[in-house]
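[Meeting: bench + compute handoff]

Bench side (C.D.) handed over the final construct sequence. Compute side (W.E.) agreed to return the predicted structure before the next meeting so the bench team could plan truncations. Sequence as handed over:
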Amino acid sequence: MIKRAINNPSVFVLKPQREGGGNNLFNEAITKRLLEIQNSDERHGWILMDRIQPPSVLNYMIRKGEEPIFTGVVGELGIFGVIMGDSENIILNSEVGHMLRSKENSTNECGLIEGRGALDSVYLTTTDSIHC
């Protein structure tokens, strides 16, 4: 898998094992980092994942202090969970919430704090009520 990512990094994302956004690596940065850590224990601090290529839609991005812009956006749905247990028993394993964010399709990260994304809301409808 590491060789595939080095040779074709655009279909992967390399994520560090820590909290907070803005630290993921994409494209050539993946190749460079993997070559640096491939034979070291430091590689255990990273997760190599297939990159999701969600569909883009046109929508308004509304940010504080800025005029709304009509642009291509993609959504990211995060599901929060909690698991508690010990080496033999799982006491609790449950979904505890969600967050829907949107980002411009021209950016890799969806950092809300950095102003690269925006909170979003779900609008459910039946397919027969959609008029394109």
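W.E. noted at the follow-up: The radius of gyration is 19 Å. C.D. will use this when planning the next construct.
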